[in-house]
Design goal:
Shape: globular
CATH topology of the largest domain: Neuraminidase
Largest sheet: 5 strands, antiparallel
Distance between the termini: 70 Å
Helix content: 10-25%
Structural class: mainly beta
Strand order of the largest sheet: 1-2-25-24-23
CATH superfamily of the largest domain: TolB, C-terminal domain
CATH class of the largest domain: Mainly Beta
Number of helices: 5
Strand content: 35-45%
Radius of gyration: 22 Å
CATH architecture of the largest domain: 6 Propeller
Number of strands: 25
């Protein structure tokens, strides 16, 4: 025991002296080596964090409780109302939210933030991620999936040799179980477009990996290249998540030609997605296996650099069920809560969250022949990110109430009521 303590103190001392000596003249020079050294020290238990700090984590914990004057806000719809109120404070963007349903008397939330922080009950900690997690260029933890109680994350990475890529990570041991190839055109990478939407379907998980760019034709073109995972929906065997690596035999490209799918649902034996278009043209798509959805060749949006349009229709590609003009910046989608689903029993009913439009959209689609019947908008005036899920990756609801995260403004409880 004493030898172990002496060893830890010795390593800490050497780390401190080396950082002072090397970093005195040029602190930027040691930024990456310092991160790797702190990662090793965390492995030895000398430090608790390698990319966050204790003060940051304590601030998140202190701000967790909502204000005492948190009030219920009521919005009137066409034939029912929607109310919401804040239940938990946190700053930043969520990557996933889960509810422990085992305790009947208390709801326990497991909240994952994109900056690599986990808020759980009365604790806040840094996530167990690999050393090359990359938080710049709007990167970080983009999505969290739970399978049989274990958490896995889609994250952005930058290797020591300057390769920008994405990976699925086991958050129990920080091991990367599936990785993409390196992205081209590193100056124009924007990991906001990495996707991360997913659904669990029996023995498989369907996961979206977007083409994360802003002005790069090289990156967006990956959506049409079969050998690239970018711009695709990937179908992965659930059992493969438990392996050291997900092999080529354990996953397949389910569909291609996607820009940035942010929402996926399975309802009435049909799969739907919402994804960001370029400068307008956000899409609601009916997803079928092996279909090509056209990005970056067709879109109802326009090009960022000159405002020119794309091709709108092509027999080669699958057209969207609906295209939002102007853009709403969709962020997530889920099946309607039970009372709203029952009210619209003759149609498929689901909810779409948005960032730019700061709204919840109630979408009705014909069950027999997928086509949009109606879209009703509830303006919230906050950027909304994720629905809280149960242990089966379904929308958590209790007494028809459900939960949604706001960017920089915590977690809120919602309920549709007063049906007319």
């Amino acid at each position: 025991m004493i030898k172990n303590k002496i060893f830890k103190y010795f390593i800490t001392f050497l780390f401190g002296i080396s950082c002072i000596f090397i970093g005195y003249e040029n602190p930027l020079l040691i930024e990456t080596p310092k991160k790797y050294v702190k990662f090793i020290l965390k492995k030895f238990g000398v430090v608790e964090n390698f990319f966050t700090n204790k003060q940051e984590l304590q601030t998140v914990l202190d701000e967790k409780k909502p204000e005492n004057n948190s009030k219920i806000i009521l919005l009137n719809g066409n034939s029912f109302d929607l109310s919401y109120e804040k239940v938990i404070n946190f700053d930043g963007r969520s990557a996933g939210i889960f509810v422990n349903t085992k305790k009947k008397d208390k709801l326990e939330f497991d909240i994952f933030l994109q900056e690599g922080i986990n808020i759980k009950d009365n604790s806040v900690k840094e996530l167990n991620v690999p050393v090359d997690i990359f938080l710049k260029k709007n990167g970080g933890v983009k999505s969290v999936i739970k399978i049989e109680g274990d958490a896995y994350a889609l994250i952005s990475n930058k290797s020591s040799v300057g390769c920008y890529y994405a990976s699925i990570v086991n958050l129990n041991n920080a091991k990367k179980i599936l990785s993409t190839s390196c992205l081209p055109d590193e100056e124009n990478i924007d990991f906001n477009g990495l996707g991360g939407a997913y659904i669990e379907d029996q023995d498989h998980v369907l996961l979206s990996i977007g083409a994360p760019e802003y002005f790069s034709q090289k990156i967006r073109s990956l959506a049409q290249i079969n050998s690239s995972k970018f711009g695709k929906l990937i179908k992965i065997k659930k059992e493969a998540f438990k392996n050291e690596k997900i092999s080529k035999e354990d996953y397949k490209i389910y569909s291609l030609g996607h820009r940035n799918p942010q929402g996926l649902i399975l309802t009435d034996n049909k799969i739907f997605s919402v994804e960001h278009g370029p400068q307008g043209g956000d899409e609601l798509n009916f997803i079928e296996e092996d279909n090509n959805y056209g990005w970056p060749i067709v879109s109802f949006g326009t090009k960022y650099n000159n405002g020119e349009g794309y091709k709108n229709i092509s027999k080669t590609f699958t057209s969207p069920l609906y295209s939002f003009l102007p853009s709403i910046a969709p962020s997530s989608m889920n099946i309607c809560p039970e009372n709203l689903k029952k009210y619209y029993a003759d149609n498929s009913c689901f909810l779409v969250l948005s960032l730019r439009a700061m709204s919840i959209f109630v979408v009705l689609v014909d069950k027999k022949n997928p086509k949009v019947m109606s879209i009703e908008q509830f303006k919230i005036d906050h950027r909304m990110r994720h629905f809280a899920l149960d242990e089966n990756n379904k929308m958590f609801q209790k007494n028809n109430a459900f939960f949604i995260s706001f960017d920089g403004f915590g977690l809120h409880k919602f309920k549709f009521d007063n049906f007319r």
